[in-house]
Input
Amino acid sequence: MSKKKIVLYQPQQVDASIGPPASGDMLPLEMLTIGAFPDREGYQVVIVDGSLYTPEEAHRRVVEACEGALLYATTGILGYMVTDGFACSTKVKARHPRLPMVIGGWFASVRPELQLATGLYDAVVLGQGELAFRELVEAIAAGASLETIPGLALWRDQQVLRTEKRAVVGWDKVLNCAWHLIDIEPYRARQAQSDSHKHILRMPTPPAIGARKPYFGITYFSSYGCPEPCTFCCSPIVTDRRWKAMPAERMLDDLAALQERWGFDTVRFHDANFGVMQKRTKEFAEGLLARGLKFWWNAFIETHSILSYKSEVLDAMAQSGLYVAEIGAEAGTNEMMKKIGKPIKDDDNIAAAVEMDKRGVCASVTYIIGYPGEQADSMIATIDQCRRLHVAAPLARPTVWPYRPIPGTVMWDQAISLGYQPPRSLPEWGSIGEYHLEETWPGKIPPEVALRRKLYQHYVTLSYGLARGKVGFWEKRAESRLRDNNWSLGVLEARAFEVYNRIERKLFPRPELSRSWVDPGHKTGTGGNSASRSSKAMTNTTAG
Ligand code: B12
Output
């Protein structure tokens, strides 16, 4: 007799009612990995990826699929996924009140009580999920108790009961993603749209393909966890600073098979920290070259990894198709970096970006300002390092975002003790918006710092040619301001440019331009406050 059905829902990444859809390269990796064991063991695994549909249609499909199912499971990270996951689960519960329901993923792992108190879920899976889910499926199929399964949070007597802690396991214990569970065509079709460069969370087109041309990419993940102790990140608490990675050969085999089947142009690694082990990165890059595998790839890699790698490994990475290195630069002073815990000092971030730049790789570098207790001079120093990085590495795209408190982090407790008022309900959590756009914790960035950040964005957007789609007088002047660290006429110039740009657009109409790097379009959820609106208004002066 065939085994029963398991319905997995990947909530929507972005609130599609506010603009373009999510980039079509983002596959439902969480569901593809936790679905692999049950799929192999004969269960019928149905994945619904919310990002492919309107919310109503996605939820309708899930509710329908749950007819006669054994189990429903979903996931979510802080942001709109939390809102949409909650909405879908609520509908499933209403229609199938006796169906076992579970949730896992980052947000549920750090706030299990919020999920369990809704009464929707029988269990929250904490942290790494493949083995826990496998055991959970077997227990539910057998009608057995969940209390003996390690790594769960259960709701007992109106409070959270945590089962025994589950150790993080290596890839020898985990299967490859069950790729056949999804139909790749809708992902391909969305990316083939001529305006796909405007889709939310889209990575830039590899330069060799041509600016803003549609390309077909997939996401992939090849490691779990991260060894860094960063105090703003919840990974140290969720993954115990363990880092387990898929061996390079296995990754190469899997990607080679996938490329033969799907024929993609890019692979976007959704590893928290791809480059922890130089040996693995070397084997991967050299393996791509030796096998003649051709695709462009991008990954999160740390400044100190880049600086400790041998130069021939960096060369091989670039030659094998690395085109964007995503670097968490975090802060521009040694003092702040010490509080964060990353082994980065002085101008290491700049040196790492230059290493990428000279190999033709774009360093996408993110800085944060407004950490709990951070003073204005430290924030200005960060913006200044960002500026200097831009000047030293012209291919790089460094940006500065306001700090956002994330639960399950060391800095979360500091933020709370400094008066941060967190959202209370699940829908509120999901709607607190985007750090790219909004200050989640308003009032922590002094006006003079906010102004400097806006001027930086203004000049840099111009200097990339993003505002008018060309490089002329305004663009060259902006670049020279950045090079000379000269802000004295900034506000005046921004206003003058706004007027000039308006007139120019009237006289010579041009299509709206994509601003994918310094982009207020990267909004994934609803929400907003006056701070965000003013920040948006400023960015729009350069938006064209
Ligand atoms: C890639 C990535 C992104 C990508 C894609 C995310 C996605 N999954 O769709 C993008 C760029 C879109 C992104 C955006 C954001 N991200 Co992000 N992101 C990551 C990153 C680097 C890797 C996550 C990932 O996809 N891994 C691959 C998947 C397969 O692994 P996984 O999610 O870990 O899944 C495993 C377990 O969690 C578990 N599991 C997961 N789901 C389920 C479900 C069930 C039922 C079960 C049993 C198990 C299970 O099993 C899986 C296998 O072991 C992590 C950093 C990190 N340390 O991992 C941050 C991270 C997840 N992001 C984070 C944040 C805060 C954000 C943003 C909110 C940032 C912001 N704007 O403020 C946005 C939110 C956007 C949104 N969709 O709402 C936080 C999450 C915090 C939280 N408490 O939820 C993390 C942990 C980083 C951090 N700073 O702490 N992110």
